[in-house]
Design a protein that fits this description.
- By secondary structure, this protein is of the alpha/beta class.
- It has one domain: Amidase signature (AS) domain (Amidase signature (AS) enzymes).
- Helix content is 37%, strand content 13%.
- Strands 1-3-2-4-6-5-10-11-9-7-8 form an 11-stranded mixed β-sheet, with helices on both faces.
- Helix 5 links the parallel strand 2 and strand 3.
- The longest helix has 22 residues.
- It starts with 8 loop residues before the first helix and ends with a helix.
């Protein structure tokens, strides 16, 4: 028998419209799952009382025929989004006790659309990580497990709490943020859909900053249709954000369905990276065949500067982080560790408040911005970024979207790569190029590894053409018919 928590966002919306159940009943069904998902450490804060109040308000609006796009939909919110009167920590000790006096634009839009907040999700500290192992509040555990052992697996990062909670049916959908792959990589590891919109499509106002020229909010959902619906509620111009672009938000859901006749799909040869497991290469080839069967024309393309994207990213992102994180000094909000002088107080607060990965990136960023190294590193990285963008611009003359794998591996065990920062950074090798170019991209679950873990396919699109990548992603979803669920739901954990 189908339970309310098995429904997709679209099905739940339609069920409430039909009067099959109320928003409050749907919310209570999710609140009842909280105890089961708690061992995964997905939520940093559960907001049961607020959820019930918001759900009742959603039912009242529906009774008055005033229901919005997401009326009554229970969501989890990544703890990088400021939520008025509700703590926001960014997964860091240094923001302990910080309660924002304002609401982020994205969450404001979700509440205006009628959504319900179940809680704030765990994340890598200040979104710095690819595993969800750097959170001050402990790691998130992936609800999936390997066939051959019972090792706890990472959910990916930094939006790992959001991805894991959606996969484990602890929320109907969730918000995430993506700087170099932090929505798409955890979506792939957890067997769900993750979408990074074009840079500027969703407001960054009220999102705690990591790297301001890269950060972008997006949805984590169970289906491509759900992603289309939720993105419609999140996107839109915001005069409070100077990087927000004033372009119309289309009806993304209306773009789904139909064949792909007339669409040209690029397959970049540079994404065939040495050491990629054969099963990921095979899944990529299968994805190409699926799109060809759906009517698309497959075109081999070249993105020659792809190999430079990751090293350039790990100069640009830490440089921006070192600037953004300078505001955390113990003076105005969050943690304060006193010292005999203001300088000592700054040092004590930052030393105790920041974790090892954040310190590493701040130091890298400070170094590449310092006198004598700015030209050699940061300026060169920005030039490389321009070349990466030009590669994509050249590709758009030949193709309408690009298909690649999402990640170079399936989910790995907690602690497996923690001693090697470079190995950890390589998890983002396939997602970073689109981030550096500010392009929209989506990860869709498409198969299982030999260990029984989910693998994703990744579609990159033209700027502000989210509709096309949603359409292509929907075709992949239909062909893959991915119905596997984590062992935690199948009674295996």
């Amino acid at each position: 028998m189908t339970t309310l928590t098995d429904l997709t966002l679209a099905q739940a919306r339609d069920g409430m419209v039909a009067g099959d159940f109320s928003a409050l009943e749907l919310t209570e069904a999710y609140i009842a799952t909280l105890a089961a998902v708690r061992p995964l450490n997905c939520y940093l804060l559960e907001t049961e009382d607020a959820a019930r109040t918001m759900a009742q308000a959603a039912d009242d609006r529906r009774a008055r025929s005033e229901a919005g796009l997401l009326n009554g939909i229970p969501l989890a919110i990544k703890d990088l989004f400021c939520t008025k009167g509700i703590p926001a920590t960014a997964g860091s000790h240094i923001l302990n006790g910080f309660v924002p006096p304002y609401e982020s634009t994205v969450t404001s839009k979700l509440w205006e659309a009628g959504a319900v907040m179940l809680g704030k999700t765990n994340m890598d500290e200040f979104a710095m990580g690819s595993s969800n192992m750097t959170s001050y509040f402990g790691p998130v555990t992936n609800p999936w497990s390997r066939a051959e052992d019972d090792a706890k697996l990472v959910p990916g990062g930094s939006s790992g709490g959001s991805a894991a909670v959606v996969a484990a049916r602890g929320a109907l959908a969730a918000t995430g943020t993506d700087t170099g792959g932090s929505i798409r990589q955890p979506a792939s590891f957890c067997g769900i859909v993750g979408m990074k919109p074009t840079y500027g499509r969703c407001s960054r106002w009220g999102i705690i900053a990591f790297a301001s020229s890269l950060d972008q909010a997006g949805p984590l959902t169970r289906t491509v249709r759900d992603a289309a619906i939720m993105l419609g509620g999140m996107a839109g111009h915001d005069p409070k954000d100077s990087t927000s672009v004033n372009v119309p938000v289309p009806d993304y859901e209306a773009s789904l369905g139909g064949d792909l006749k007339g669409l040209r799909i690029g397959v970049p040869k540079e994404y065939r990276i040495d050491g990629t497991p054969a099963e990921i290469e095979a899944l990529w080839d299968e994805g190409v065949a699926w799109l060809k069967s759906a009517g698309a024309e497959i075109v081999e393309i070249s993105l020659p500067h792809t190999k430079y994207a990751l090293p350039a990213y790990y100069i640009v992102a830490p440089a921006e982080a070192s600037s953004n994180l300078a505001r955390y000094d113990g003076v105005r909000y969050g943690l304060r560790v006193d010292g005999e002088t203001p300088q000592e107080m700054y040092e004590n607060t930052r030393g105790e408040g920041f974790g090892a990965e954040v310190k590493r990136r701040v130091l890298i960023g400070t170094y590449v911005l310092s006198a004598g190294y700015y030209d050699a590193y940061y300026l060169q990285a920005q030039k490389v970024r321009t070349r990466i963008l030009q590669d994509f611009q050249n590709a758009w003359e030949k193709v309408d979207a690009i298909l690649t794998p999402t990640t170079p591996s399936a989910a790995f065990a907690q602690g497996e790569k923690m001693d090697d920062p470079i190995a950890m950074y390589l998890n983002d090798v396939l997602t970073v190029p689109a981030s550096m170019a500010g392009l929209p991209a989506i990860s869709v679950p498409a198969g299982l590894s030999s260990d029984g873990l989910p693998l994703g396919l990744h579609v990159i699109g033209r700027p502000f053409d989210e509709s096309t990548i949603l359409k292509v992603g929907h075709a992949i979803e239909d062909a893959a018919d991915f119905t596997a669920v984590p062992q935690i739901l199948a009674g295996g954990g």
